[in-house]
């Protein structure tokens, strides 16, 4: 009887852990998508349309993870970005966009941020830190 109860408890615990991981992944994906939206909003602020750019393209933003909150995700823009388009290879697109982000951050004296890949072509590639995902739940 105790053996059977132990198996049920183990199965229940495993199910709970899997559900927690799935929820964490879903929340992470939601944050990733919102960061992608912020990048698009920032491009529009500068009178560009990322979606209209030819592939192979990349979008990079100088992200201050410690300042990311729901208000920023809903209404904010990045202070420094870089983008590239019509590149021969993905690696080159990312490199050029990252350089542009760094130059814009330097020009506008944006500090305490890291230029991180947000988009490659139309795929969101940003990887928010777990503490940001947890904070936004």
Pick out its properties:
137 residues, single chain, 4 helices, four-stranded antiparallel sheet, globular, 4 strands, alpha+beta
How would you characterize the overall build of this protein?
With 137 residues, the protein is an alpha+beta fold. The chain has one domain. Helices cover 54% and strands 14% of the residues. Strands 2-1-3-4 form a four-stranded antiparallel sheet. The protein is globular and about 40 Å long.
Set down the secondary structure blueprint.
Layout: H1 2-45, E1 58-63, H2 70-75, E2 81-84, H3 90-107, E3 114-120, E4 123-124, H4 130-135
Antiparallel strand pairs: 1-2, 1-3, 3-4
Strand content: 5-15%
Number of strands: 4
Structure class:
alpha+beta
Strand order of the largest sheet: 2-1-3-4
Distance between the amino and carboxyl termini? 40 Å
The biggest sheet amounts to: 4 strands, antiparallel
Instruction: Give the topology string: H per helix, E per strand.
Output: HEHEHEEH
Q: What's the rounded overall pLDDT mean?
A: 86
Q: Which geometry do the CA atoms define?
A: globular
Helical residue percent? Answer: 40-55%
As residue ranges, the low-confidence spans are 5-24
Radius of gyration: 19 Å
Number of helices: 4
What is the count of structural domains? 1
